[in-house]
Each structure stands twice: as C-alpha cells, then as structure tokens.
Amino acid sequence: ESSAACEVCEGAEEMTEPLKQCVAWLQAYFCEPARTTSLPMPAFHHPLLQRDSFTRQVLWTLLKDVKFGEAVSYKQLANLAGNDRAARAVGGAMRSNPIPILIPCHRVISSSGQSGNYGGGNLMKEWLLSHEKLQKEKLSY
Question: Which residues form the Methylated-DNA-[protein]-cysteine S-methyltransferase DNA binding domain (predicted)?
Fold first, then answer.
C-alpha cells in the first residue's frame, strides 16, 4: 500500500481537455479505481488505433472485455478477438500498444500463468497486476 498522495502536476489549468480527461482517468486508476468506470475514456487518436487491423481489434477487445483486476492469456485474447490461432500476433499487438495502462496490456499473461513480457518492464507489469488485485479485493469487502 502506498503512502504517497495522488496529485496532479502544477499547471493543470493549462492542459487541453483530452489531457485533463487522461490525467483524471489515470489519477482514478491509481487512487480510486472504482471511479474509472464512471469517467469518460480519453479519446484515442493514434494512427494504429484508427486503421482496420488485427492489432486494433485485439487492443479494442482487450479494452472492452478484460476488466480491472482480471487477466487473460494471449491465446484467450486471440480467441476473443476472433482468431484463436493468433496468440503470437496478440503478443505483437501488446508490444505495439501506444497507450499502456489505458489499454491494459499488462492484463495479458501467458497460458502458464507467468506474467510474460511488458514494455515497461516485468516488475512494472507485476506491480500493476498486484495493484489491480489488491484494489479489487478492497472493493469486494
């Protein structure tokens, strides 16, 4: 459990509206996860998320179907995205995710239960998974 307070950086009044939404969502994710469901998801304008591709399908499926505190295997996510034989392609989609945490690629693990790789480092992935598990348990009480 962290003793650090959740704060927004100085100069917040100078932020654009999409950036304010992003900051609010991330602040809620780390400090009050139950609020993330009531906040608007920031707009995604990255080209990878605009063009029709399997990567886009995988990322949107992950965002929509794998909830806070849950994990899914690469193979399960491939199946959810419509191609049960594309577990390696799901790994590629996770590597190319332009907005980790917002599109929660840390929730994708190997079929063996191992955490798998993460662009932010495996310790970060394990921390994010632990954070979500702990917060979900708190919400269950």
Answer: 56-133
CB atoms within 10 A of CB 7: 9
Question: Could you say which of 6, 22, 31, 105 is catalytic?
Answer: 105
Dihedral pair phi/psi, residue 95, rounded to 5°: -65, -30
Q: CA neighbours within 13 Å on the CB side: how many for 132?
A: 18
Considering the segment(s) 45-132 as one domain, its CATH architecture is Orthogonal Bundle (1.10)
pLDDT digits (tens, 9 = 90+) for 25-69: 999 999 999 898 899 888 888 888 888 899 999 999 999 999 999
Name every residue whose Cβ is closer than 8 Å to that of residue 131 and which is 6 or more positions away in sequence.
30
Q: What is the pTM of this model?
A: 0.86
DSSP run (H or E) holding 47: none
> Shortest CA distance to 63 belongs to which of 53, 49, 52?
49
105 among known catalytic residues: yes
Instruction: Please check whether residue 19 is in contact with residue 48, taking contact to mean a CB–CB distance below 8 angstroms.
Output: no
